[in-house]
Write a structure and sequence with these properties.
Oligomer: single chain
Shape: globular
Number of strands: 16
Strand content: 5-15%
Strand order of the largest sheet: 3-14-15
Number of helices: 13
Number of domains: 1
CATH architecture: Alpha/alpha barrel
Order of helices and strands: EEEHEHHHHEEHEHHEEEEHHEEHHEEEH
CATH class: Mainly Alpha
Structural class: alpha+beta
CATH topology: Glycosyltransferase
Distance between the termini: 56 Å
Length: about 500
C-alpha cells in the first residue's frame, strides 16, 4: 500500500500511502511558555479550577486540556479545543490521582452521574445508563460548530469506554474507606429532574454494559455510531484511521468494532462491581452474576484477541467483514500494554504467564519503545508515522498506564524505566503535552507543524500531524501520580 512518493521540504521524510497526496503544511511557532519547566500541581489546580490542593475536587471534574496562555485572544484556536469536561478524560485523571486527591473521584463520578444518559436520542447518541463523552452545552461555540458540521446534539455520548471507566472509578472510591461507602447513597438530580442515588447510577451503567454485551454474538463491547458523521472510533484512539488491518486497510465501520483495552476495562469493571456488591451491599447473588458475566468476557478476550504471529501479542481489536464475521485487527499497538494493568493476566497458569511475558517482550522492542515511552503503533506497521495522533506518537498517560501494569505484575525495572522516560519528556519540553513524537531521535520532541493530506481512497482529508495540546490533563495526572509514588518510595526507604 506504500507508494514511492514522500513528503518533502520541512516535513519528516516518510512514505505516503497509496492514494494519498499532500495538500498543505503549516508551521506553528512554539508557545512562549516553553522557556521554563512548569509545575504539575499548578497545572492540575488550573484544570480543576482550584486555588489550593485542598480544593481539588470541590469544583467538579478536571477539564480535558488547557493552553498555557490564559488569554484566548493570543492563543491559537488549535490549542483551545478541549477546555471542557470529557467523560473519559476526567475519569482517567480521577482514578490516576485517587490516592492523592480522592475527592476528585467523588466529584467526577457525581457530575457524570448527573449527566448519565436516560433517553434514546440518536443526535446525542444517548442511551440509558451511558456516560457522557463530551459535556458541552449547546451554546458553546465549539459545540455549535460541531453541530453544524456533524449534526451532533448536546451533551454528546459518543464513547464506548467512559461507562466502564465510570464504574471503575466509582467502585475504587467507595472501596477506599468505610466512610466512602456511604457515597453510594449520595443523591443527585438526573437529566429528567428526578432525585437519584449513586447506587442507581451504578446499576444503570451496569445495565448499559449488560445490554450491549448480551446483544453481541461474541459477548464483546463493540461500537458503531448511528450518525453519518458521528465519532467513528469511539475509544481513546479516536482518529478515523487508527483502527486498521495489517495491510493498512481501515476497519469496516459498517459493522461493530471492538477494541482490546475496552474489553479489558469492562472485565475489570464487572469484577470491581462484583466486589462492591459482595463487600458493601451484601448482595452475594448479584456479585456471583457479575463474576460469571466477567468470566465469559475474559474467555472471549483470551480466545479472540490473542495473535501468535510475530512473537505473540494482543491485536488492537476486531472488526467484521461484509457478512458480519469477526476479524482481528492484527497490528501491534500500545493498547496491548493495557492488558497488563488488569486482573486479566494475573496468576500462574502457564498460558497466562506466556501471554504476559510475550506482551512485555513486545513492548521492549525498538519498534514499540522510543526515548519518550511506548509508541501508539509499531514502527514496522504500514500506517506508522512518527507525528501521527494515534498511529506512531507517544502519549504519556498511555505509557504511565502500562507502567502501572508492569509494576503490579512484577516487571518493576521496566516500569521504573518508563516512569523516567515520561518525566524526561516534561523536563525536556517544558510542557505537559498531549503526546510527543514517536520518532527515533535521542531527545523527546513535539510536532511544530500541521500536515494535511488528501486520501483519494477514502475521499477525505487526513490531518496526519498537528501540534499537541500544551497542558493535557491525562499527562499532568500521570506526572503527578508518578512523582507521588516516587515520594512514597523514598520516604519508605529513608
Amino acid at each position: 500500500m506504500h507508494s514511492n512518493e514522500t513528503l518533502s521540504g520541512d516535513t519528516p521524510n516518510y512514505p505516503l500511502l497509496g492514494g494519498e497526496s499532500l495538500l498543505e503544511i503549516v508551521s506553528h511557532q512554539p508557545s512562549n511558555s516553553l522557556s521554563q519547566q512548569p509545575s504539575s500541581l499548578a497545572q492540575m489546580l488550573r484544570l480543576t479550577r482550584s486555588s489550593s490542593p485542598h480544593e481539588i475536587g470541590k469544583n467538579g471534574p478536571a477539564l480535558a486540556a488547557l493552553a498555557f496562555n490564559e488569554d484566548p485572544t493570543s492563543t491559537p484556536d488549535h490549542l483551545r479545543l478541549y477546555e471542557v469536561v470529557f467523560g473519559r478524560d476526567s475519569l482517567r485523571v480521577a482514578i490516576d490521582l485517587i490516592s492523592s486527591y480522592p475527592q476528585l473521584a467523588r466529584a467526577t463520578t457525581l457530575e457524570l452521574a448527573r449527566l448519565q444518559g436516560l433517553d434514546t436520542n440518536m443526535e446525542r447518541e444517548e442511551e440509558l445508563g451511558r456516560i457522557v463523552h463530551e459535556a458541552r452545552s449547546a451554546e458553546d461555540p465549539i459545540a455549535q460548530k460541531l453541530t453544524r458540521e456533524n449534526g451532533w446534539g448536546w451533551p454528546y455520548y459518543g464513547s464506548v469506554d467512559a461507562t466502564p471507566d465510570f464504574i471503575r472509578t466509582l467502585t475504587a472510591y467507595c472501596q477506599r474507606t468505610e466512610e466512602n461507602r456511604a457515597f453510594l447513597g449520595a443523591e443527585y438530580i438526573d437529566l429528567h429532574g428526578e432525585e437519584q442515588t449513586m447506587s442507581r447510577a451504578l446499576e444503570r451503567a451496569l445495565l448499559w454494559i449488560t445490554q450491549r454485551t448480551h446483544s453481541n454474538q461474541e459477548g464483546l463491547l463493540e461500537y458503531k455510531s448511528p450518525l453519518e458523521h458521528g465519532i467513528e472510533n469511539q475509544v481513546w484512539k479516536d482518529s478515523w484511521d487508527a483502527y486498521h488491518h495489517a495491510d493498512g486497510t481501515l476497519a469496516n465501520r459498517e459493522h461493530g468494532i471492538a477494541s482490546i483495552e475496552v474489553q479489558v476495562t469492562t472485565y475489570d469493571a464487572l469484577i470491581d462491581a462484583a466486589e462492591l456488591f459482595e463487600d458493601v451491599l451484601d448482595d452475594k447473588q448479584r456479585a456471583l452474576s457479575l463474576r460469571e458475566q466477567a468470566e465469559r468476557l475474559r474467555t472471549a478476550i483470551l480466545n479472540i484477541f490473542w495473535v501468535e504471529e510475530k512473537g505473540g501479542y494482543f491485536a488492537l481489536g476486531t472488526d467484521r467483514d461484509e457478512n458480519g464475521s469477526l476479524r482481528q485487527l492484527r497490528i501491534r499497538t500500545s493498547n496491548m500494554g493495557h492488558v497488563l494493568n488488569s486482573r486479566l493476566l494475573k496468576g500462574d497458569n502457564p498460558r497466562i504467564v506466556n501471554m504476559r511475558d510475550k506482551v512485555v517482550h513486545q513492548l521492549q522492542q525498538p519498534e514499540m519503545l522510543n526515548i519518550s515511552g511506548i509508541r501508539t503503533l509499531a514502527t514496522d506497521e504500514i500506517r506508522f508515522r512518527p507525528g501521527a495522533y494515534h498511529n506512531g506518537s507517544v502519549w504519556l498517560w498511555d505509557t504511565h498506564h502500562i507502567a502501572k501494569g508492569l509494576r503490579r505484575l512484577g516487571y518493576k525495572e521496566f516500569a521504573d524505566d518508563l516512569d523516567l522516560r515520561i518525566l524526561n519528556v516534561v523536563a525536556t519540553t517544558h510542557m505537559f503535552p498531549e503526546y510527543v513524537r514517536g520518532d527515533s531521535a535521542d531527545r523527546p520532541s513535539i510536532n511544530t507543524q500541521s500536515v494535511l493530506l488528501w486520501d483519494a481512497i477514502e475521499q477525505r482529508k487526513n490531518l496526519i500531524e498537528q501540534p499537541p495540546q500544551e497542558v493535557q490533563a491525562w499527562t499532568v495526572a500521570a506526572i503527578l501520580a508518578t512523582k507521588a509514588r516516587l515520594r512514597r518510595r523514598y520516604t519508605a526507604s529513608g
